[in-house]
Structures are given as structure tokens and as C-alpha cells.
Design brief:
Radius of gyration: 31 Å
CATH topology of the largest domain: Fumarase C, Chain A, domain 2
Order of helices and strands: HHHHHHEEHEHEHHEHHEHHHHHHH
Number of helices: 19
Number of strands: 6
Strand content: under 5%
Distance between the termini: 54 Å
Bound molecules: arginine
Length: 457
């Protein structure tokens, strides 16, 4: 018999019962549900809304249920409508009439709004923690590669020389902002909605502040309709996770490219790559490809939430039950991806010679050649044009700027002398790019220190 049997003359159709039920996916919030109920029962007892003794019986009963689920003694009933109904029914089964008083001055609407916030606040902490770990993995690698010269690209064409450390630190900064977004989300989510009731608060003299204190929230939601109606905190988290996944996906895409024979900048550890069932020579970067693929899935979760919410009238609507599968999927996916990415990254071999050789080709020092003339007093546009002509001449002769004879340089400008070879050497090009944020080792060292300092805050 459903709990609303008094109003109804028939049992629910079995298909509707299954269709309606969310216990398959909301059971994972059982700890938070029970913790929330314990705080609610404590407050009801303290405010004299139920007897103190009954409040104690309820709390003991709830603690027993929590232990039994934790220890696998109590299993979820797949026929229960949701985790909230399951716990309440189990409580009443165990402690009798007192259990029936737990739901005084509460609705499932504010209960679920509370549970999902509590659950996600814990998840944010975990995602934050592993993202910090990933940043540390990156900074550790960067420290090893301050002088590992590689080509920097625009349009996937070799552009200017950088170092591998410099490239890695770009991702560290992106991830640092991802942490900032998680922190912002956490702050706004940290408002306690219980006491909103179904939508219009309650006539009981409840103490919402007390529940807030017991559960460790920053404050209480300020409007009962809003408290039960919005899921912006889920959307905000899905959005922060989507951006994080986008960063992880770009990093993955680069690793996929770097693993190819065309680049061969890195080699994945055998434990983090897969073979082909037919082509014996293959070593595939499946982990990174899956991260790229799963990013699409998380975007789907975000879109799901946005679309589900966009035309719901206030206050609660059952559509909102769909929030859970979407946000849980986003949270599970990002954790899975980061936790797999970290060991894959830290065991990856960097093939420095190939990076350096690639940087030595492709006229990656052409800007520096132009800058050489500028430093001798020539306007940049003129220097740019002369260097372009030099590059064309090199291509014609099948040489590079480093091996083009000085006579060819001098044909285009008197300002050139032997010094030019030093100015355009790969090492000079990188070492002299000392501007803040640039690739010179001392600049990148400062970037590493900055990121580590920010993480310590
Ligand atoms: N399982 C429901 C959900 O996740 C709980 C809230 C139900 N409220 C209601 N008025 N039917 O949204």
C-alpha cells in the first residue's frame, strides 16, 4: 500500500510504480538522507514539536538503519518510491509510531532538495581533491622539463619554440580556474533548504537555523519556493565539470597526437595503452580517446539539466527527479576520468629529442630573425618582410635559417652579421623569452611557484 492510500481507492499500477520510482538511482544518497533526518528529528525534539523521547527513538532507529545499510545487512527495496520513502517506512517498521512523526513539518520536496545538496557538496570536495592531485602531477612533470624545447603551434602549424614545461603549465592554469569554479559552486550550493516544506514553509514553530548548524551549512535558503524549486546548483556543477572535462579533453587530444608516429613526442606506458585485435604493430591511446568521448557525455548531462528545468512552473515538479541521473553521471564520469588520467600522465615517457628535432624544423625561429633586425633599429614590418623573403630562399635552397649562408642574409640587409646565428638558435629563442608567462625556464619556474602557492591558499 502506498503511503498516500487514504486518498486513493485503488493500488498503483505496477508499471506506474516502476516508472515513478527513483530508488534505483537515489539510493546512493542514503547517508545524506539519514543525516538530514537525524538533524530534523533533533530540531523537532528540541523545539517541542515532538516529544524529546520520541525524537531519541527516531534518531536511534535512523542510526541503526544507517549501520545496517553500511554493513550490507539491510537492502534497498526496489519497490520503494524513493530513498526517502524507503528510510521512513523502514524506520516505522523498526520503531513503530514514533517513526510516523519524523515527517512532521517536512515534505519530500525540501527533503530531496537537502539531500542532493549534501550529496553534491561531498562530491565537489572529492573532485576538487583529485583535481589538485592532477595539478601536482603536472607541476612535478613541468619541473623536469624546464629546458625540454618543443614547437609551440597555432593552427597546428609550428609557430614558435616553447618548452614542454611551458606547455604543461598552460593546463595547470586551466585546472586552477576549474578549481575556482568548483569552489564558487560549493559556496552557492551551501544553503540549507529544509523547512521550505512542500513549497510554502510550515505553521510549526521550527528552527531552521538549528538544522543548518547541525548539518554544517553556511546559511539557510531565503525563500521557501526557491528552496524547493531550483536546481541551478546542479546546473552550475555540471557546467563547472563540463569545462573541466573540456580541458581534460584538449589535453587528451594533444596526447593522442603526440603518440602518433607523425609526432612521437611521447610514449604511453604499456599499462595505459591498448593493442589492436588485428594489427600487431598498434599501441593505442584508448584512455585519452575515451576521455575525449566522455566529455561529450558530460555536455549531454549539462544539456539534460538545462532543458529539463527551462519551462517548469514553480514549485516542485516530478520532472525534477530526472536531475539525479544527469548530475550523478557527470560527477561519476569526471572522477573516473581524472583518476585514470593521473597515473597515465605520470608514467608517460617524454621523447625529448623528437620534440627538439620538430622544433628545429619549420622556421620556428623566423620571428626571432625579424626581432634581430628590429633590435638593430629596423621597423618590425620591414624586418618581417625581409625574413619572409629569407624563408622563401631557404625553401628554395633546401636549408634552414640556421644553415643559410651569411652572404644570403647580407643580400637582403646590411644589418645582418654572424651574430644572427646566435640570435636565431633554438636555445636563444626559448631562453630569451623571459617575459612574465613566457617559456624561458625562469618564467616557467615562476609559473609553477604561482600555481603551487594558489593551491596552498
Ligand atoms: N524522488 C523525488 C525526486 O527525486 C522526491 C521528491 C518527491 N516529491 C513529490 N512531491 N513527489 O524528486
Amino acid at each position: 500500500m502506498p503511503m498516500w492510500a487514504g486518498r486513493f481507492s485503488k493500488d498503483i499500477d505496477e508499471r506506474v510504480n516502476d516508472f515513478n520510482s527513483s530508488i534505483k538511482f537515489d539510493a546512493r544518497m542514503y547517508r545524506h538522507d539519514i543525516k538530514g533526518s537525524i538533524a530534523h528529528a533533533t530540531m523537532l525534539g528540541e523545539c517541542g514539536i515532538i516529544d524529546k523521547s520520541e525524537s531519541e527513538v527516531i534518531i536511534d532507529g535512523l542510526k541503526g538503519i544507517l549501520d545496517d545499510i553500511d554493513n550490507g545487512v539491510l537492502e534497498f527495496d526496489p519497490n520503494a518510491e524513493d530513498i526517502h520513502m524507503f528510510v521512513e517506512a523502514e524506520l516505522t517498521k523498526r520503531v513503530g509510531d514514533a517513526g510516523k512523526r519524523l515527517h512532521t513539518a517536512r515534505s519530500r520536496n525540501d527533503q530531496v532538495a537537502l539531500d542532493i545538496r549534501m550529496y553534491l557538496l561531498d562530491e565537489i570536495k572529492e573532485i576538487r581533491e583529485i583535481t589538485v592531485k592532477l595539478i601536482h602531477t603536472i607541476t612535478d612533470m613541468a619541473k623536469e622539463h624546464l629546458e625540454t624545447v618543443m614547437p609551440g603551434y597555432t593552427h597546428l602549424q609550428r609557430a614558435q619554440p616553447i618548452t614542454f614545461a611551458h606547455h604543461l603549465m598552460a593546463y595547470a592554469n586551466m585546472l586552477l580556474r576549474d578549481i575556482g569554479r568548483l569552489d564558487d559552486t560549493y559556496k552557492r550550493m551551501n544553503q540549507m533548504p529544509l523547512g521550505s516544506g512542500a513549497l510554502a514553509g510550515t505553521t510549526y514553530n521550527i528552527d531552521r537555523q538549528r538544522v543548518c548548524e547541525l548539518l554544517g551549512f553556511d546559511g539557510i535558503t531565503q525563500n521557501s519556493l526557491d528552496g524547493v524549486s531550483d536546481r541551478d546548483f546542479c546546473i552550475e556543477l555540471a557546467s563547472a565539470i563540463s569545462i573541466l572535462m573540456m580541458h581534460l579533453s584538449r589535453f587528451s587530444e594533444e596526447i593522442i597526437l603526440w603518440c602518433s608516429w607523425e609526432f612521437k613526442f611521447v610514449e604511453l606506458d604499456d599499462a595505459y595503452a591498448t593493442g589492436s585485435s588485428i594489427m600487431p604493430q598498434k599501441k593505442n591511446p584508448d584512455v585519452t580517446e575515451l576521455i575525449r568521448g566522455k566529455t561529450a557525455r558530460v555536455y549531454g548531462d549539462l544539456n539534460n539539466l538545462l532543458s529539463m528545468m527551462k519551462n517548469l512552473p514553480l514549485a516542485y515538479n516530478k520532472d525534477m527527479q530526472e536531475d539525479k541521473e544527469a548530475i550523478f553521471d557527470a560527477v561519476d564520469t569526471v572522477k573516473l576520468c581524472i583518476n585514470t588520467f593521473i597515473p597515465m600522465l605520470s608514467t608517460m615517457t617524454v621523447i625529448k629529442e623528437n620534440m627538439r628535432n620538430a622544433a628545429a624544423k619549420g622556421f620556428i625561429n623566423a620571428t626571432d630573425c625579424a626581432d634581430y633586425l628590429v633590435k638593430k633599429g629596423m621597423p618590425f614590418r620591414d624586418a618581417y618582410k625581409i625574413t619572409g623573403t629569407l624563408v622563401a630562399r631557404c625553401i628554395e635552397l633546401g636549408v634552414t635559417l640556421e644553415t643559410l649562408p651569411i652572404s644570403e642574409y647580407k643580400k637582403l640587409s646590411d644589418s645582418f652579421d654572424e651574430e644572427v646565428y646566435k640570435a636565431i638558435s633554438l636555445d636563444t629563442c626559448v631562453m630569451q623569452r623571459k617575459s612574465a608567462g613566457g617559456p624561458a625556464p625562469e618564467s616557467v619556474k615562476a609559473q609553477i611557484e604561482y600555481v603551487l602557492r594558489e593551491l596552498d591558499k
